[in-house]
Amino acid sequence: MPRHEFWPGRLIAGLALTTAGITYAGDAGGWWTTPWFVIIPIVAGGLCLAGAAGVTGRAVRRRRRGRTRASASSSSSEPSV
Questions:
Q1: Rounded to an integer, what distance in angstroms lies between the CA atom of residue 35 and that of residue 7?
Q2: How far is CA 50 from CA 13, 35, 61, 70, 78, in A?
Q3: Euclidean distance between CA atoms 17 and 21, whole angstroms
Q4: pLDDT digits (tens, 9 = 90+) for 41-62
Q5: How many CB atoms lie within 10 A of CB 78?
């Protein structure tokens, strides 16, 4: 059993912002040249993907919780013998 729930939106947001940070670090270190406008699609696209993954993940968790509650309520409504 996992110790915590998996949040795919947070993972994707973290990866996008880490990519932006690595891109700026490479530019600052002199390994490559990065125009300032390259970071905008990385961050904006990453946050949009993170939002979509978060909404999808929440819908899946909500649906699973509904099934668990429905099965628990149906089994508890039966009389015990």
A1: 32
A2: 5, 24, 16, 30, 42
A3: 6
A4: 999 999 999 999 999 999 988 8
A5: 7
